[in-house]
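Protein 1 of 2
SEQ + STRUCT:
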Amino acid sequence: MSERLKDLQRQRALAQEQLAWLEREIARESGDQPPTAVSTPSAAARPLAAADRARAEADAEAVLAQYKNDPQTLQSSVKRGCYLYFLAALALFGLGIFALYFFTVRRH
């Protein structure tokens, strides 16, 4: 059985379950007795849902593993960024002092 066929059958079972729920809710709200033949999803649909859930969890784990960062690498990157910001601030401060000195000495 192809994967697409399994998926379509699972979707049909879910739609039938939803329709049965809608029928029960409509009957309850209108005060009628619920229909006696309530269709339930087949036993084959339940393992498919469990298999889909397991496959989705495996896919999620693969995505998480793909974007997982090493804590040591992250720590060194943060430390390097802090040093770069400090050096840039120090250079900007030095430039400000130089400009202040240059403009005050040149004016006199």
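Protein 2 of 2
SEQ + STRUCT:
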Amino acid sequence: MTTAPAICQVLGIDTQGFSKNEMAILEAELFAQLCEKLKKVIKKRHKDYFHLLKFDIKKENAVIEANFIRCVINDILSTEEYTLAGIAYHTDTPEDVIYELAMGRNTAPTLFLSTKIIALHRSVRPSLYYAVMNKVAKEYSAKIAGDQR
């Protein structure tokens, strides 16, 4: 089961009648929400760093945005479940590309590669993703309930 139908199931939404385009839009929206929530997690983890450097919110967001995939890769590495070579293998990407992302030399990976890296991250941090997606589902559920009033 892909992410979108799983979230919709939690929300009580039947995706069987959705077109391919509607499912693509739903997947894109969920991916965007997931990335935003992960950025908040990263921001929390680096709170002291940002405070020390006296970054304002705009600068914090720019740093997180530029280093998002680097942080995800380094978190994968911190689990010791994968090496750079392992990440490269499982994302079907040359190792030097993964290395450049991990070192911060490349801050603009393709969306396709980013989704592969995030999928791998999800496999090593399932509880984090469960918590994040649960939060997204609750927010959508609350919004739907509010819209129906």
